[in-house]
Amino acid sequence: MTSAIRMGVLALLWGSGFLWIKISLNEGLTPGWITLVRCALGAAVLLALAYGAGQRLPRDRATWGRLVVAAFFCNALPFLLFSVGEQTVDSGVAGVLNATTPLWSLLIGLALGTERPLRATRLTGLALGFAGVLLIFAPWSHGSGLMSWGALALLGASASYAVAFAYMARHLTGRGTAPLALSAAQLLTATGLSAPALAAGGTATVTWAGVLAVVVLGVFATGLTFHLNYRMIAEEGPTAAATVGYLLPVVSVTLGALILDEPLTVRVVAGMAVVLVGVGLTRSRTRPSRVESDATDPPRAAAGAARSAAPDRP
Predict the structure, then answer these.
(1) How far apart are alpha carbons 63 and 172 in whole angstroms?
(2) 22 half-sphere exposure, CB direction, 13 A CA radius
(3) DSSP string, 237-280
(4) Do 92 and 257 touch, CB atoms closer than 8 A?
(5) DSSP of 39-90, one letter per residue?
(6) CB 276 within 8 A of CB 246
């Protein structure tokens, strides 16, 4: 498989995740069930891959304690928030807001003192990124929905990823745990943390289409994508893998428009372009930090952590 084809497959699988969430919601599944099943199926895929690679789950209590924090902020909470957000916001817009994670990561880095003072280029990128979000939701328009719970949930999910990546970079990377086993353990922990969410959201009639959508979301858009991304990082380096992050909003918006007939207005497209340009400017540095390089999707953060923990291929 060539690099271009692998990158295209990876972008399609990751970017389609927002579509599968939307279909699952439309077909009767609640955000709590989507989150739980997604984590459980993703964990099952990674456990099988780890077993096949001869990797064992961590045994020390300290690592499992750190995994609880990472699993909450990197999986259980953002997965739930994205499902909640897509109840009222289009799947394509959700994919665009996912791309704002590097902006939150940059702000967290500045707050923690791990980022150097911003150059003019990166400061401009930060301003452009959030300006793009404002352009998408157009708060000056009546009924734009900027301050809706759905929109805030989506932004909260992206910020949660950023918190998780900063924590993982400090407390989970480079500690010798086998990569696939570490990621499987994290999603296994996230499954347990997601269980209480089932109490909220009520019940509805679930169709077979909804079941199929959440299975695809868990197996392919969560579990398998991590493995493919890890292989890309191991074989081609983090720069090639990070490039996929710029394709995710394009995929989510395109699929939402083609399959779900979501409106694709000039304003939304322009906002998406502004967000991506802003993210690109914030990452314009000689050597990107791990937090920024990984801040596009939770499996990428786990893959970055895995690469530091075990540089060899799985």
Answers:
(1) 8
(2) 24
(3) -HHHHHHHHHHHHHHHHHHHHHHS-----HHHHHHHHHHHHHHH
(4) yes
(5) HHHHHHHHHHHHHHTT------HHHHHHHHHHHIIIIIHHHHHHHHHTTTS-
(6) yes
Distance CA 162, CA 196 (A): 23
Over residues 24-34, the pLDDT tens digits come to 999 999 999 99
Reply yes or no on whether the pLDDT at 125 is more than 70.
Answer: yes
Distance separating alpha carbons of residues 276 and 55, to the nearest angstrom:
37
Quick check: 22 and 83 in contact, CB under 8 A?
Answer: no
Confidence of residue 306 (pLDDT cuts 50, 70, 90): very low
What is the C-alpha separation between 245 and 259, in angstroms, rounded? Answer: 22
* One-letter amino acid of 254: T
Q: Tell me how far apart the alpha carbons of residues 161 and 258 are, in angstroms, rounded to a whole number.
A: 28
Determine the pLDDT at residue 238.
Answer: 60
CB neighbours of residue 70 within 10 Å: 25
Is 71:184 a contact under the CB 8 Å cutoff? Answer: no
- Taking Cα atoms as reference points, which of 203, 156, 215, 175 lies closest to residue 63? 175
d(CA 152, CA 69): 22
Question: Six-digit token pair at 105?
Answer: 């990561």
Residues whose CB falls within 8 Å of the CB of residue 141, separated by 6 or more in sequence, listed in order: none
Tokens 């599944």, located at residue = 29
| pLDDT (tens digit per residue) in 151-194 | 899 999 999 999 998 898 888 876 677 888 999 999 999 999 99
> What angle in degrees, to the nearest 10, is found between the helix axes of 91-98 and 238-259?
160
The SS3 of residue 53 is coil
Q: Which of 281, 279, 288 is nearest to 116 (CA)?
A: 288
